[in-house]
Specification:
Elements lengths: L19 E8 L14 H15 L7 E8 L14 E5 L6 H10 L8 H12 L9 E4 L9 H10 L6 E6 L3 H7 L3 E6 L2 H13 L9 E9 L2 E2 L4 E6 L4 E4 L1 E3 L2 E6 L2 E9 L3 E10 L6 E5 L7 E4 L3 E3 L3 E7 L8 E5 L11 E3 L5 E6 L5 E10 L5 E12 L4 E3 L3 E3 L3 E7 L7 E6 L9 E4 L6 E4 L5 E8 L5 E10 L4 E3 L3 E3 L3 E7 L7 E6 L9 E4 L5 E5 L5 E9 L4 E11 L4 E3 L3 E2 L4 E7 L6 E7 L10 E3 L6 E4 L5 E9 L4 E10 L1
Parallel strand pairs: 1-2, 4-5, 5-6, 7-15, 17-23, 25-31, 33-39, 41-47
Antiparallel strand pairs: 2-3, 7-8, 7-12, 9-10, 9-13, 11-12, 13-14, 16-18, 18-21, 19-20, 19-22, 22-23, 24-26, 26-29, 27-28, 27-30, 30-31, 32-34, 34-37, 35-36, 35-38, 38-39, 40-42, 42-45, 43-44, 43-46, 46-47
Helix pairs in contact: 1-2, 1-6, 3-4
Length: 651
């Protein structure tokens, strides 16, 4: 599983002598649910800061073109297609601030981190575009899909995109710092305030952001009548600051720089309310109206008072509004009103939905949430439920042989998405390597790495929370090979072996000194304890190698000298057209060796009538119907090589 790569690609420019094209790329991978040390989820922080930047873009600038690409928002990181999940949701055509903000707010953290594919797609997005194109990248980790980021950057250069990257990292580890430092200037941050400061400074190098104070007006009503006895606060979710509105002529007013805010209302009749995602910017009036509904207008009831963390519960609701697309979620009580985990729409005013509890243990709160007509979200009803600790056991052998499958017996909640995995001891909570979903039953079949060391077998929830673990020791896998010291080039060699016989393990033959994964022939260990391996046709120093299929690790090697092939072709010097030709031969008899007749000078892979040497000697061919000078050839099909030849005249 990947580490998280929280990524925006902001192509922002200064003073715009020509068109400036901006593409934002937002990382919506599952690791965005990791938290900063201050307890805030990275996905929430990332979206808050990005909305602040979008709201601060200049209101009038005909040369500014802003688009939004998101990856990881549509396919779970453990499903097929996760590494192809990248899409341009808002095209680079002017500045559609409303659509940008709406798309950012709706983005759900879910999938993988295909950075290279997203950069390659960005190169295509910029194709044929004239003007300034620069990139700012914000991330908390590395590519998770095996993509070549360096090649993707090269494609950006080919597309004419300025790839003088400035990387803003979110709690990057040492490996990520080392990798990203090769491509760009790197700054690392660990909280929302620092991210806002560093990102705004980076953007300011490209385009002048709006800084002036803007008047904000709030009008509160209940059943159409003005409410003037409430306390109204403007909350900055990034800086964690709040300012109080003053009441004037029945409306609440203050001035603030542009940004994305929450408006908190404390009203004696309907209780505390928070309206989330309020956009303040220079190209609108920034006047907001909110209707305060009594708490009794809506109600929620959870089917049980407590349930195992991560399990499903039924939530009954009444009084859901017909507008505002009401929805139900369950979160920890301290989360803001706009927070969500699993969620379902609540249609038809009354009904029930099935919701999964968060994977955390403790008090939870079911919420009925709706979107106000002027923007922002409000919680209409709440109900308590407690998430209890699941009873989980893991039974695994303390010592495991490396390089092969082992069984992990378990008991647990078996909630959707739960899985069993094995990782190096001390790995981050979101790490996984070999894994199997609990829905397949106990025991789980996992693959032990060939490398010796201390590992952990873990029971992990569908939200990537480690619910239980047990330490195991993997004994390093070993192997041994038995084979002749020499063999004829182009023939076969029989190799006996000892080793883990893991999935995909194979014995290969390769030139001495070549890369471990190089090969000229191979056979899988699953096919027997004595394997016949086809040999290359070039004489020289080679090696037989035992290779672990899961990771291509070399466990054992044995030198092998290939001697020149001894080949003879005994055939008549002349033959009639269309007549049979009996050819007695001797040679290595490789799996793809064959005898054929072709014209003198024909390409090495050419063939006329032919017989494979495995059919024995003599081989009988039919002479061509056209007279001329020909050659009888001994060919190795796999290498496309002529190993021996004899001239013959067809009359």
């Amino acid at each position: 599983m990947k580490t998280w790569f929280g990524l925006w690609l902001l192509c922002l420019t200064p003073l715009l002598a020509a068109d400036t094209h901006i593409q934002l790329i937002l990382d919506a991978s599952g690791s965005m649910w990791n938290k900063f040390e201050d307890g805030r989820y990275r996905i929430t922080t990332a979206k808050d800061v990005l909305q602040q930047v979008v709201n601060s873009l200049p209101a009038e600038n005909a040369g500014l073109q802003v688009g939004l690409r998101i990856y990881g928002s549509r396919v779970s990181h453990k499903e097929n297609g996760a590494c192809d999940d990248t899409a341009l949701f808002v095209p680079m055509s002017g500045v559609d601030r409303d659509q940008l903000l709406k798309t950012i707010r709706k983005a759900r953290a879910l999938g993988a981190t295909p950075i290279a594919k997203s950069l390659t797609a960005a190169a295509a997005d910029f194709s044929g575009i004239q003007g300034k194109k620069s990139i700012i990248l914000v991330t908390d980790g590395l590519e998770s899909c095996g993509g070549d980021v360096e090649a993707a950057v090269a494609k950006l250069k080919e597309a004419g995109v300025d790839v003088d990257l400035r990387i803003i990292g979110l709690d990057l580890d040492d490996q990520a710092v080392a990798v990203f430092s090769r491509y760009a200037t790197l700054e690392n941050v660990a909280d929302a305030a620092s991210l806002s400061k560093v990102l705004s400074a980076a953007v300011e190098e490209q385009v002048t952001l709006e800084r002036k104070q803007l008047p904000v007006t709030v009008r509160l009503t209940r059943k159409g009548k003005a409410v003037t006895d409430a306390k109204v606060m403007l909350v900055d979710p990034v800086k964690a600051t709040q300012d109080t509105f003053s009441l004037s002529q029945g409306r609440y007013q203050l001035s603030t720089p542009p940004g994305s805010f929450d408006i908190a209302v404390d009203d004696v009749h309907s209780g505390p309310k928070v309206f989330s995602g309020i956009a303040v910017n220079a190209d609108q009036k920034n006047e907001f109206s909110f209707e305060l509904a009594p708490e009794s207008d809506a109600s929620l009831r959870v089917s049980v008072k407590e349930a195992v963390a991560g399990s499903a519960v039924t939530v009954f609701y009444e009084g859901a509004p017909t507008g505002g697309e009401p929805w139900i979620t369950i979160v920890t009580p301290e989360q803001s009103d706009g927070a969500y985990r699993d969620w379902k729409y609540a249609p038809d005013g009354k009904g029930q939905v099935t919701i999964y509890l968060p994977g955390e243990v403790g008090p939870m709160e079911a919420r009925l949430v709706a979107t106000q007509p002027m923007g922002g979200e409000i919680v209409l009803a709440r109900a308590e439920v407690t998430a209890t600790k699941p009873e989980i056991s893991l039974d695994v052998a303390a010592n495991l042989p490396g390089g092969n499958y082992f069984e992990a017996f378990w008991t647990g909640p078996d909630n959707p998405g739960d899985f069993i995995t094995i990782v190096p001891a001390g790995s981050a909570p979101g790490a996984y390597e070999s894994y199997q979903y609990t829905k397949k039953g106990s025991p789980s079949q996992l693959l032990a790495k060939p490398e010796a060391g201390d590992y952990e077998v873990r029971y992990v929830s569908g939200e990537n929370k480690v619910l239980a673990s047990t330490r195991v020791v993997i004994q390093g896998a070993t192997a041994d090979l038995e084979a002749p010291q020499s063999a004829m080039a182009g023939g076969k060699v029989t190799v006996s072996w000892q080793g883990p016989n893991g999935p995909g393990d194979y014995i290969s033959v390769a030139e001495a000194g070549s890369n471990d994964t190089a090969y000229s022939g191979y056979a899988y260990t699953k096919d027997g304890k004595a394997l016949a391996i086809d040999l290359p046709v070039k004489p020289g120093a080679y090696e037989l190698r035992y290779m672990v299929g899961s990771g291509d690790k070399l466990l054992a090697r044995r030198p092998l000298t290939l001697t020149p092939a001894k080949i003879t072709l005994d055939a008549p010097d002349k033959v009639k057209t269309g007549a049979p030709i009996e050819i007695k031969w001797q040679g290595p008899d490789g799996a793809s060796d064959y005898i054929t007749i072709v014209k003198v000078g024909a390409a090495a892979a050419s063939y006329g009538d032919y017989r494979y040497t495995r059919d024995g000697s003599p081989a009988t061919l039919t002479a061509p119907n056209e007279a001329g000078t020909y050659e009888i050839r001994y060919n190795n099909e796999r290498a496309g090589a002529v190993l021996a030849k004899k001239a013959i005249t067809v009359e």
